[in-house]
Amino acid sequence: MHPLPLLQQREIEANVIAPLIRAFAAEVGEVHAREVLAGVIEGLARESGCAAAVTIGGNDLSHLRQVVERWRAGGALELTVLRDDAEALEFDVTRCQYAEMYRRLGLADLGPILSCSRDGTMIDGFNPGITFTRTQTLMAGATHCDFRYRKASERPADDAAR
Description:
Layout: H1 6-28, H2 30-56, H3 61-72, E1 77-84, E2 88-96, H4 97-104, H5 111-116, H6 118-126, E3 130-133, E4 145-151, H7 157-160
Antiparallel strand pairs: 1-2, 2-4, 3-4
Helix pairs in contact: 1-2, 1-4, 2-6
């Protein structure tokens, strides 16, 4: 059996999760429902990171590149690589079919929780020695998502100067 492309898996999940979270929100309130959803997604993302490291057979930046390729499967992400070496993997996502899919399904409000929020927590499970920063996302209306992964000891030059 072949695993589903991640984009297709996320669409199936969204079609199940969205009605549940909407019903839950009607019972306990929107804020609480979103907090619970965010906690569940955080746990799933951490587990996903751990599982990816085991499946790929490692958890350094070279292995992380393989994870990113799974995210990109079927053209789900278009990205521009800015840095790719032993110390850092940095890229900008210029098109995100995940964001497009959530919008198409009428779930743009849940997309950041169901998708974007996974990225930072996933890396904690994959390798807590890799730092992740992102300051903007297409999902939130930016022109691109800025993914920056670095070995924890590797700091950007402007941070080192502080």
